[in-house]
Design brief:
Strand content of chain B: 15-25%
Order of helices and strands of chain B: HEEEEHHEEHHHHHEHEEHHEEHHHHHE
Radius of gyration of chain B: 24 Å
Number of strands of chain B: 12
Helix content of chain B: 40-55%
CATH architecture of the largest domain in chain A: 2-Layer Sandwich
Shape of chain B: globular
CATH class of the largest domain in chain A: Alpha Beta
CATH superfamily of the largest domain in chain A: Metalloenzyme, LuxS/M16 peptidase-like
Number of strands of chain A: 12
Oligomer: heterodimer
Largest sheet of chain A: 6 strands, mixed
Distance between the termini of chain A: 23 Å
Number of domains of chain A: 2
Number of helices of chain B: 16
CATH topology of the largest domain in chain A: Cytochrome Bc1 Complex, Chain A, domain 1
Structural class of chain B: alpha+beta
Helix content of chain A: 40-55%
Distance between the termini of chain B: 78 Å
Radius of gyration of chain A: 24 Å
């Protein structure tokens, strides 16, 4: 029934857009011979206390990046404390048994770094990047946080107040509102439905709860230390043993990985009213594969053709042809046990309906048309190349290793990506598109002037309801 | 025949080498200048099979024409709209299918175009950059399209955002008096709407020339081979006369400037504070860079510790010298040291400024402690190295430094320059520049929505 409504709507406002493919200039030099990405050589160790240590020594650039990752992020927060991980990461560097908040900041600055603690859905990361000559000092601060964060009452009180004000401020940002609402729409009350606190959850949280959650998640047998940069691996390993060797895991049960969500998101338009908005922020979301699923890379190729690249169908249509928007984006969100297809665009109020129409058109065009050979080759080469250029810095490599570890995947996956993508065929892309791109699978959040949105989107025949 | 000509022209390159300071990290780098005026800087980096490329032109928002605010940026978009032999869409398609990305950015003092890709795409990218340095498509239809895109960009980043980047775009307009320094570089819509294809021609003819550009390339290759490629693709681009540089200097500020703005979209008030800074090439400027970081860099900074932690009059504070541009070492005209402070609705502007002024007074009377100075030197060294880590960002730093100075030396000397700044130089910098008569403050407050009964009839 819903599908019928949608196809009628598309008939009413059929797109006039047809993309032409220009031939390449005759004098343009061809690409040179491919140089394969050299997968980082990872030295893997596990300390006696269970801490996973992956070392990637790279000489030259005189810095070292550390990421300490632990299992359990927003998806592991207590049900009555949504977004608790944000408070945990905001206060983890605000005092230990040895150091005050100020000393932590000053000691880390002296090493050339900052403490960067943040939560994702399935993990918490504490990252820093320090001068090679100050590795010992930087690592000492990191070990102190991992083992002995103290959550002093006065710091927790201040953080709660400031995060409440920050939430007030974030709620005026249309993309924050869109992201928060689409997560709720797609994952409901399940573990992946939340990534920010509420006023109530912040108000109710206590220092004792922070210490409890810290003890539950920060344990060496469910943690990994990823180290990338200019160091000698033997010296680094003995340094790590010295700083982290005394860290012990409790006998209580660790965080269990989040389970896959069972809800199916409704095919409807969810409004977040935003008075005075001069644009509508459109966020489309549907169930998608996650990294580790057999069709994940194939769906990445399909997404690149659809809207992931600048030269994609969607960007060519609604930006380069029609000028409705500055930076439309399409991407896959990949958690440990769930994934989502996402499309987002900020469009001027008057272009709300036409943009919506073109996005549906491009989604359905993925389903009805196979990619051309050029589209397929461009997307595949782009994904493999982007992998190479997004794994250049120490920070990027450490972050990628943390992501693989969190999913239970080996570091060697980095070297496999190019081969996997190279083998993908047009038929496989089309099969993935048929599975993940039908417009009727998508839920939509629209943030902006309510009247504008209702008038512009009514012709599409979908239920228009307030966002949850 | 072709090879002979190439070798012949190569011999006309001017070569420079710069002495190496043992304790500093300095990737091997070479600069050559081509007969048509194009300056080329090349640095080998074999850590990944990739390349980063940046071409900076010596024109930014500051020198865009009167009545055409936002034009330098609109023009930047037009550089992606094709040429007679590589029509719209080709540039992106080639770089993306080469496994890379391409982008452009308009600063006050330069406009940069940069690509990052596997090194196998280098020839194609150089060819495309050379092609759009020779001529453009100048299509009125594409200008209309990009005018729409730019206006959506302004809506997304300014008009539809809480705070609307007022500390980036509004503060300089209030702090300076001359058009080049005191106009909106993103552009007023009436000026964007008025821009026509003749403007695009004129701007291109005036500023987009090899002699007004620096090309920097960093990556996994042999430098000699890349110089030869650059010569092959760029030597036929003709040089052009560029207009004499406008005098952009300002008369000294004599009184504090205060402005209050209402914000339709935010619920939490904020302050923007801007102090006029000395010229980049003066000794005071480097002390100013260090002072800016002492005050603003991270949780160890003076402002964070005082305003957010100790006195609890701010939710967040960030800032530094040339915050609205490419940072404390890359500018070419009057700039500000900017602080952006978000403060709780139950505090007043005066309470925030009292704490802010106390922090500045402490720096201006006592200067930093030796330990504090050591810390900030380490941090600035580490931050600057990070700025040079990725091939594309190193290419950017090399091209900006060379554009301003004719040599890339500054891209590598920043840590050493910072380490030479003394506590007393920072103290006297603060006492001289961080004074009320030299500053402009914008207080950005949420628009009142509570409607008093007495004004019930008003709109």
């Amino acid at each position: 029934m819903k599908i019928l409504c949608l196809s009628l709507a598309l008939l009413l406002v059929a797109s006039t857009y047809a993309q032409k493919e220009q031939p390449l200039p005759k004098d343009l030099p061809p690409f040179g011979p491919e140089k394969p990405l050299r997968a980082p050589e990872v030295r893997k160790t596990k300390l006696e206390n269970g801490l996973t240590v992956w070392l990637v020594p790279r000489s030259g650039f005189p810095k070292v990046s550390f990421t300490l990752a632990v299992v359990g992020g927003y998806a592991a927060d207590p049900r009555d404390r949504p977004g608790f991980s944000q408070l945990l990461t905001a206060t983890i560097d605000q005092g230990t048994k040895k150091r005050t908040a100020r000393q932590i900041a000053e000691d880390m600055q002296d090493a050339g770094g900052d403490v960067n603690a943040f939560a994702v859905r399935d993990a918490i990361h504490i990252s820093t990047s320090v001068l090679s000559s100050k590795t010992t000092e930087g690592l000492a601060v990191l070990a102190d946080l991992a083992d002995e964060a103290a959550f002093p009452d006065n710091e927790v009180t201040l953080a709660k107040r400031n995060l409440t004000d920050q939430l007030e401020q974030e709620e005026t940002d249309p993309s924050f509102q869109a992201n928060r609402a689409i997560a709720k729409v797609l994952f409901g009350n399940g573990p992946y439905g939340v990534f920010s606190p509420t006023r109530d959850s912040l108000a109710a949280a206590t220092s004792a709860e922070l210490r409890g959650e810290f003890a539950r998640r920060f344990r060496p047998d469910h943690a990994a230390l990823l180290v990338v940069g200019d160091f000698s691996p033997d010296q680094m390993l003995s340094l790590i043993r010295g700083k982290f060797g005394a860290w012990h895991s409790p006998s209580s049960p660790p965080v269990a990985p989040a389970s896959a969500p069972s809800v199916t998101a409704p095919h409807a338009i969810f409004i977040v009213p935003r008075p005075e908005s001069v644009q509508t922020t459109l966020a489309f979301g549907a169930s998608g594969p996650h990294r580790g699923d057999s069709d994940f890379e194939t769906t990445e190729v399909a997404n690149a053709i659809y809207g992931g690249m600048f030269g994609s169908r969607l960007v060519n249509n609604i930006r380069e042809d029609k000028g409705y928007t500055y930076s439309p984006s399409a991407f896959l969100q990949s958690f440990r046990s769930a994934g989502a297809m996402r499309t987002q665009a900020d469009v001027r109020n008057a272009a709300t309906g036409p943009s919506f129409n073109e996005i549906l058109y491009e989604m359905n065009r993925m389903v009805t048309t196979s990619p051309t050979e050029n589209e397929l080759q461009q997307a595949k080469r782009n994904l493999v190349g982007i992998e190479a250029i997004s794994l250049q810095s120490n920070d990027e490599v450490a972050g990628e290793l943390a992501d693989l570890w969190m999913r239970g995947l080996p570091p060697e996956e980095i070297g496999n990506y190019g081969r996997k993508v190279a083998a993908i065929t047009a038929d496989e892309v089309n099969a993935a598109a048929k599975k993940y791109f039908p417009a009727a699978h998508f839920s939509v959040v629209a943030v902006g002037e309510e009247k504008v949105i209702r008038e512009a989107l009514a012709p599409f025949g979908l239920p228009i309801v307030p966002a949850p | 025949m072709t090879i002979t000509r190439r070798l012949l022209l190569l011999s006309f390159f001017l070569s420079f080498t710069v002495s190496v300071h043992a304790q500093e990290w300095r990737p091997p780098t070479t600069l050559k200048k081509m007969p048509n005026g194009l300056t080329v800087v090349i640095s080998e980096d074999h850590s990944a099979p990739t390349v980063g490329l940046c071409i900076s032109y010596g024109i930014g928002s500051r020198l865009e024409p009167v009545g055409r605010t936002g034009f330098a940026h609109l023009f930047e978009h037009m550089m992606f709209e094709g040429t007679p032999i590589a029509p719209k869409g080709i540039f992106n398609r080639v770089v993306e299918s080469g496994g890379g990305f391409v982008n452009g950015q308009t600063d006050n003092d330069f406009t940069q175009y940069y690509e990052s890709a596997p090194v196998s795409a280098l020839d194609a990218m150089l060819w495309l950059e050379a092609d759009r340095m020779k001529t453009l498509d100048f299509s009125p239809k594409n200008l209309d399209n990009q005018r729409n895109v730019v206006e959506e960009e302004v809506r997304a980043n300014v008009l539809n955002q809480p705070y609307g980047l007022f500390y980036i775009f509004d503060l300089p307009q209030r702090a300076f008096d001359k058009y080049p320094n005191a106009h909106n570089g993103y552009g007023d819509f009436k000026d964007l709407d008025a821009a026509n294809i003749d403007d695009v021609h004129r701007f291109y003819d005036q500023y987009y020339a090899p002699n007004n550009a620096v090309l920097a390339i960093v990556g996994d290759f042999a430098s000699d081979e890349v110089f030869a490629k650059v010569e092959k693709y760029f030597s036929s681009v003709p040089s052009k006369p560029t207009p004499p540089r406008t005098d952009v200097s300002e008369s000294p500020q004599t009184a504090e400037r205060r402005v209050t703005q209402e914000d339709n979209l935010t619920k939490v008030p904020a302050l923007g504070v801007g102090y006029r800074m000395p010229a980049r090439t003066t000794h005071d400027a480097i002390a100013g860079a260090v002072a800016g970081e002492l005050l603003h860099n991270g949780q160890a900074s003076r402002f964070y510790q005082s305003l957010v932690k100790e006195k609890q009059v701010a939710l967040s504070i960030n800032g530094g010298l040339n915050l609205n541009g490419a940072g404390p070492f890359e500018y070419n005209g009057p700039v500000l040291m900017i602080s952006f402070i978000v403060y709780p609705a139950d505090k007043t502007q005066d309470q925030v400024l009292a704490a802010y002024d106390a922090a500045i007074a402490a720096l201006a009377t006592k200067g930093p402690s030796p330990a504090e100075l050591d810390r900030i030197r380490s941090k600035m060294r580490a931050d600057w190295y990070s700025n040079l880590e990725l091939p594309v960002s190193r290419a950017q730093a090399l091209s900006h430094a060379t554009l301003f100075d004719g040599t890339y030396e500054r891209a590598y000397s920043v840590p050493e320059e910072v380490s030479k700044v003394t506590a007393d130089e920072i103290r006297s910098f603060a006492a001289k520049y961080l004074v009320r008569t030299n500053r402009t403050i914008i207080n950005r407050v949420p628009k009142r929505t509570d409607k008093p009964a007495a004004s019930g009839g008003a709109q």
